[in-house]
From TrEMBL, chain A:
ABC transporter domain: residues covered: 11-244
InterPro entries: AAA+_ATPase (IPR003593), ABC_transporter-like_ATP-bd (IPR003439), ABC_transporter-like_CS (IPR017871), ABC_transporter_ATP-bind (IPR050166), P-loop_NTPase (IPR027417)
Lineage of producing organism: Bacteria, Bacillati, Bacillota, Bacilli, Bacillales
Keyword set, alphabetical order: ATP-binding, Nucleotide-binding, Transport
Name this protein carries in UniProt: ABC transporter ATP-binding protein
UniProtKB/TrEMBL annotation, chain B:
Membrane topology: Multi-pass membrane protein
Superkingdom: Bacteria
Gene3D superfamilies cross-referenced by the UniProt entry: MetI-like (1.10.3720.10)
Cellular compartment(s): Cell membrane
InterPro entries noted in UniProt: MetI-like (IPR000515), MetI-like_sf (IPR035906)
Primary location recorded for the protein, binned into one broad class: membrane
Descriptive protein name: ABC transporter permease
Sequence segments annotated as region (Disordered): 17-43
TrEMBL record, chain C:
Keyword Acetylation: no
Protein name as it appears in the record: ABC transporter permease
Membrane topology (UniProt): Multi-pass membrane protein
Cross-referenced PANTHER family: ABC TRANSPORTER PERMEASE PROTEIN MJ0413-RELATED, ALKANE SULFONATE ABC TRANSPORTER-RELATED, MEMBRANE SUBUNIT
Key word Cell membrane present: yes
Signal peptide region: none
Organism the protein comes from: Paenibacillus tritici
InterPro entries: MetI-like, MetI-like_sf
Main localisation: membrane
Any Pfam family: BPD_transp_1
Family of the protein in this entry: Belongs to the binding-protein-dependent transport system permease family.
Subcellular location: Cell membrane
Limits of the ABC transmembrane type-1 domain: 67-253
Length: 260, 299, 270
């Protein structure tokens, strides 16, 4: 590879196909998906259930391997990128370990990397500060509300300073008010860490509010049906949700579904 | 790096339950590995399935090694200490009618005791659910009874009920009550609060709530307890016969050992094991008949 | 503090009432058998509680010593059995082949009256110490192995994927995820096995041994009605040993895995 680093897309999918074979059925979960995501970009994968958006994220994370096509992450294969520990992942549920206090949940990835304990502890406090959970370091996960648990999960994902943050419907189990607040907080955090973020959601407003670009997927078979640029300026504020441009974007994306 | 990536795949694939899907190329996703459970049992070459073949083979090898006295040499045992499988089979053939009638006797004790014990346990669970504050105490008492060694019960039950079938049935009753009480209580208590609210909205009284909701909900737990109790009841009956009995597998077992008829003792164990497994399978079959609606049956 | 008081009122008081109620009933039935019904061997069938209590007190040193011997032997066997059970569970979770080999036998062993093997093992070993330890260990082995395996398997798929995404090494997955997650399963196995191990030890003692509560039990039974209070004391001590083994495991569980839902305040999840 003689290309200069900045010219390589951070994540590059080339005719990726994912097929699940079972005894009774042969399901084409993703059909010929090609896309590029630039370094430092915030993109959303948007679509209804069964459109393969989570599958797409899991492919990028090397949790599953595509049945056809190629995935490159920072010029390497997805597997190499995972083994180089470039990823932070946030799932739909917080997946915190019950037996660890909040601070030790956050430092789990650092432990696996072999980071010194004193450094880990400092990092945990710094991250708790970042996600607005000062003073909760020594609580157990079950002593926190759902929104707080998800913030811990985000802090954990950020602890190893990942170049890529993959988020699989992280706020979908939360109520609307908490979700909007966490959206704003996520953007604030992102402005500080500057990772590339791939965000899976089925909420049109959420995808618009957060992203630079929205990849719209449609089901049967799962495929990329549209890419919508979000020209809203940054930093984004809560008021933008009431702006006419915001509603136009909602209408546009909704329209791209109706064409299917 | 490459070897590393190869090695950590199985950790993800083995994440599911005990599904015995044969390894297939696309097995690193959940969807393809789950229905694998369904397909295997219908295959014609069922015996070649490693899940059956391997343990069977291991069992046969074990028996052969035993027969050719490898263990005897290994642990310096004499044949009168550890009889050979062929000798056990011979003893079993020679005493078949006696062994069978004793098996029936022991099984009768076990079944009778288990029915009474499980019934009492269920009643206790009902009481503990209906009157949590005071009934709950009875639950703790039975749980304590569960920790009492069976052998300590044997002499007492013998004093109370003589050396007939009653004394062993009483031992079995005492040892099976707790598992049923605790499990059934769990099932009756683990009712979805919304389902309770629904019953309230119908203005259903306590008996109706029990009949339509709590008892139904407790059925899977009840069968778990019954399955635990099959084994417990066989143990209770056999151990009870060790000391104060003139019939039954446990009596014959301990007596044969005392007079150094080891092969006969071993054949008692074999029959007890077979009876235990059959008893268990019968209960399991009943479970399938009774709770067709439970999610664990749909898989 | 407030929680404690509520706990005392809600759980301990009814239990206390239950225990005293049963003791009173016992004493009453004992009196009835002896004085009203005039049953033969009335005191052997159900002795006065106060007489048993006084025998317990009078021979407490002997009872404690012999009970301790039983408990110690059961404990050694229990530890050996538990360790091998955990080892087998880990091996089964690591290797399909080992699992296919051992799992059916482990399950079948749960359907077989294992305690029936006690006389056989005693017949082979002919040594009270060793056979007590063997039986206790053997009884402990399978419930621990099966429950530990269930625990190791109970790990959430997402939690594994999380480890996967961090490219965690297999040992790290075990050490940081599977083992802690398996602790509740391990302890439910240990709690099932502990009283069984005590039972096994007493059983061997009843078949012929020099020391242990079972020996004392048998001896006093053979001495006849004159030793009935002592006999009942040994039965009570045996029962207490079983309960103590269970209680000990519950205590250790609270210390080692205190984060489980049922230990959480506010009455747990529901």
């Amino acid at each position: 590879m003689s290309l200069i680093a900045t010219e390589i897309p951070e994540i590059q999918l080339d005719h990726v196909e994912m097929r699940y074979r079972t005894d009774t059925a042969d399901v084409l979960a993703l059909h010929q998906v090609s896309l590029d995501i630039a370094k430092g970009e915030f993109v959303s994968l948007l679509g209804p259930s069964g459109c393969g958006k989570t599958t797409l994220l899991r492919l990028m994370a090397d949790l599953i391997t595509p049945t056809a096509g190629r995935i490159r992450v920072a010029g390497k294969s997805a597997r190499e990128a995972r083994l180089a520990q470039k990823y932070g992942i946030v799932f739909q549920s917080p997946v915190l370990y019950d037996w660890r206090k909040v601070r030790h949940n956050i430092t789990l990835p650092l432990e696996l990397l072999g980071v010194k304990k004193s450094v880990r502890e400092d990092k945990a406090l710094e991250l708790l500060d970042l996600v607005g959970l000062q003073g909760f370091a020594d609580k157990y996960p079950w002593q926190l509300s759902g929104g707080m648990q998800q913030r811990v999960a985000i802090a954990r994902a950020l602890s190893m300073e990942p170049e890529i943050l993959l988020m699989d419907e992280p706020f979908s189990a939360l109520d609307e008010f908490t979700r909007e607040r966490l959206n704003e907080e996520l953007l604030a955090v992102w402005s500080k860490v500057q990772s590339t973020i791939v965000f899976v959601t089925h909420s049109i407003p959420e995808s618009i509010f957060l992203s630079d670009r929205v990849f719209v997927l449609s089901p049967h078979p799962g495929r990329l049906s549209a890419v919508v640029d979000i020209p809203l300026p940054r930093p984004r504020t809560a008021e933008m949700r009431n702006a006419p441009e915001f509603f136009e974007l909602i209408a546009r994306i909704r329209g791209s579904f109706e064409g299917v | 790096m490459a070897s590393n990536s190869v090695r950590d795949i199985p950790f993800i694939t083995s994440a599911g339950t005990e599904a015995d899907a044969a390894p297939n190329p696309a097995s690193n996703n959940r969807i393809s590995s789950e229905p694998g459970r369904q397909k295997n049992p219908r295959r014609p070459l069922q015996l070649l399935n490693p899940g059956i073949l391997l343990p069977l083979l291991a069992g046969v090898i074990f028996l052969v090694l035993w027969e050719v006295q490898v263990f005897h040499r290994l642990f310096d045992l004499k044949k009168y200490q550890l009889p050979l499988p062929s000798a056990i089979a011979e003893a079993m053939r020679d005493n078949l009618s006696l062994l069978l009638s004793y098996t029936g006797y022991t099984l009768a004790e076990a079944v009778l005791g288990m029915l009474i014990g499980s019934g009492c346990g269920f009643l206790i669970a009902l009481a503990a659910t209906a009157w949590p504050r005071w009934g709950g105490g009875s639950l703790s008492m039975v749980a304590a009874l569960n920790a009492v060694p069976i052998v300590a019960l044997a002499p007492i039950m013998n004093l109370w009920f003589g050396d007939g079938i009653g004394s062993r049935a009483a031992i079995v009753t005492a040892t099976t009550m707790a598992a049923m009480a605790i499990n059934a209580y769990k099932g009756m208590a683990a009712v979805d609060p919304l389902a309770l609210d629904l019953m309230h909205s119908y203005a259903a009284g306590k008996p109706a709530v029990f009949r339509h909701l709590r008892i139904q909900n407790s059925l899977p737990y009840v069968f778990t307890a019954l399955k635990i109790n099959t084994t417990a009841s066989m143990i209770g009956a056999i151990v009870g016969e060790f000391f104060f009995s003139s019939r039954g597998l446990g009596y014959l077992l301990s007596n044969s050992i005392k007079v150094a008829k080891m092969p006969l003792g071993w054949s008692c164990i074999v029959l007890a094991a077979i009876a235990g497994v059959i008893f268990y399978l019968v209960v399991e079959r009943l479970e399938r008949v009774f709770i067709k609606w439970h999610p664990s049956r749909r898989a | 503090m407030k929680l404690n008081r509520a706990f005392m009122r809600g759980r301990v008081l009814p239990l206390f009432v239950w225990i005293s109620g049963l003791l009173v009933l016992w004493e009453a039935v004992s009196w009835w058998l002896l004085s009203i019904a005039k049953t033969p061997l009335a005191q052997s069938k159900l002795p006065y509680v106060h007489e048993v209590a006084s025998a317990l007190w009078k021979y407490s040193v002997t009872l404690l010593r012999e009970g301790g011997a039983t408990f110690g032997n059961a404990g050694v066997g229990f530890l050996i059995g538990a360790l091998s059970g955990v080892l087998l569970a880990v091996l089964m979770s690591l290797s399909r082949t080992i699992e296919q080999l051992a799992f059916p036998y482990a399950v079948a062993s749960q359907m077989i009256p294992i305690l029936g093997l006690a006389p056989i093992i005693y017949g082979i070993v002919r040594d009270e110490q060793v056979s007590r330890i063997l039986i206790s260990g053997y009884i402990t082995f399978f419930p621990v192995a099966l429950n530990m395996l269930r625990g190791l398997r109970s790990v959430d798929l997402s939690a594994l994927e999380l480890m996967h995404s961090y490219a965690a090494k297999p040992w790290a997955v075990y050490w940081k995820l599977r083992f802690p997650a398996a602790l509740p399963g391990l302890f439910s196995g240990l709690k099932i096995a502990a009283p069984l191990a005590v039972t096994g030890a007493i059983l061997v003692e009843l078949m012929g041994a020099q020391h242990g509560i079972g020996v004392l039990m048998l001896r006093n039974l053979y001495y006849g009605p004159s030793h009935t209070y002592m006999f009942w004391s040994t039965v009570l001590v045996g029962a207490l040993l079983g309960m103590a083994s269970y209680g000990l495991m519950s205590l250790v569980e609270r210390l080692v895995a205190p984060w489980q839902p049922e230990f959480r305040p506010q009455g747990g999840s529901r």
